[in-house]
Fold adenylate cyclase.
Amino acid sequence: IGRGKYTLSGLLLAVTAALVFVARHTEQVARVLFLWRSQVEEQRDCAKDLKRRNEALVYNILPPHVAAHFMGNRNRNHDELYSQSYEEVGVLFASMPNFSDFYSEETVNNQGLECLRFLNEVISDFDALLELPQYQDIIKIKTIGSTYMAASGLNPTRQIKPDDSYYKFDGHT
């Protein structure tokens, strides 16, 4: 009986040690899985933010219907080009001549901040004009440095009516 008592105690001690080992291993695995899930969630949020930024950039650079074509069509070939034919298109390049000469990073200019603030005001004024109903068919393409680029006649859904005086050219405008 004495020997069985020690055997049973040894067996109980071995089972306890095994259970402690399994519990610690399970806890370690759970912690690693928690960290991985946290990293995956963080990367998913980062990817969503990057996708949102990329879409905003595409919609900022391209006319809305072209951006929608590229963003919405997931089954197209990567070498597929987009082309559309329009009968009447106008392109505007509004530039501030010699802006680079005007721009200076002096203390009086707050290290160039005032020049950039002025440029931002001009660009914002152009953007505000394009929000007016009479300019609804003019699309901002992009700004590069001190040059503002816009285009009209690129709206595929707009139907020009014969009596639409906004689109008539009288030779004086």
Remarks:
- Helices lie at 2-61, 64-72, 99-102, 113-130.
